[in-house]
Design a protein that fits this description.
Catalyzes the ATP-dependent conversion of 5-aminoimidazole ribonucleotide (AIR) and HCO(3)(-) to N5-carboxyaminoimidazole ribonucleotide (N5-CAIR). This protein has 353 residues and is of the alpha+beta class. It has 11 helices and 17 strands. 44% of the residues are buried. The structure holds adenosine-5'-diphosphate and magnesium ion (MG).
Length: 353
Amino acid sequence: MTALAPGSTIGILGGGQLGRMLSVAASRLGYLTHIYEPGTAPAGQVCAALTQASYEDMSALQDFANAVDVITFEFENVPATALDLLAALRPIRPGTTALAISQDRLTEKTFLEGLGLTCAPFRDIGSLSALEAALTDLGTPAILKTRRMGYDGKGQVHIRTPGQAQTAYAEMQGQDAILEGYVAFEREVSVIAARGVTGEVVCFDPGENVHECGILYTTTVPATLTGAQRTDAALLAGRILNALEYVGVLGVELFVTSNGLIVNEIAPRVHNSGHWTQAGCAVDQFEQHIRAVAGLPLGDGRRHSDVVMENLIGDDMDRLPDLLATPDTQIHLYGKSEVRPGRKMGHVNRIVT
Ligand code: ADP
Ligand code: MG
């Protein structure tokens, strides 16, 4: 495929902070972006065109597709009917297969195990009796998760004793779920990797992640890993990318255990735990994704600095004056006017060396 010519338009499904940073990266490479977002759109402030319409609005989707040259997304839960309509009109990168697989935790884990990768033990839960049987099988503690639409720890219930099955099941409110055995991990890391249109694969260095209340709080690079673990992380990311014939950036969340790396989940898009690349690499994850989607050669992915990325969540914004005065600190704000508890308002990248 020939690379997208300068001045072409990249359509982005989803107008949150990820879409915003993708849009900025695209404009640096001479492209225009058109954002499609049903709700509030921080990305709408930095794009050439914005469509605010629902993912059920077939006529708005059709107009959007006709106005762009290629389509990508920052949000993986776009309904299948919308994707089918869009895919008939324009290339979607990464493909609709990657999206369909990662929209459902059961399909995702089945796919990952099919590649020979290790996941937490899991069971499909369609009823209370299935949950009770699975708890007998996997033991406690365990985590019940909705199969679809979960993020930032939402849609999850920790089960500490078998007696909690009924209340946990009620919390799923009839949604399909999976039960996962608890992984006693040493640390959590993620690897952000990219695959280009010609099949080349580039991995960023794994980052070490700390969550608070289910939300990512910090990512530190380099992560505390052995050389063998680093190699494993890159190889398994490459295997996933190739299997999906993927084009773009993929985030892979991993648990580090004494028995090796366990894949927690994959995100078919740029990832919060990859924001450190903005200060640590010449080509960050956003430019890397746009390069892939536009059919350009990928950047090298090499890390030139150690970085600590910290999310600014809710009231963390009160620390802004201090952060602005801190040396070697890059500040990214998402243009959201209303501060709410748990809302990601921005992040900072502190260069450590
Ligand atoms: P989300 O889509 O909300 O990010 P995750 O499946 O990544 O959902 O779970 C959020 C966090 O919960 C993980 O980063 C990890 O800290 C913890 N967690 C999830 N699954 C397990 C598990 N099977 N064992 C131990 N901890 C888990
Ligand atoms: Mg996660």
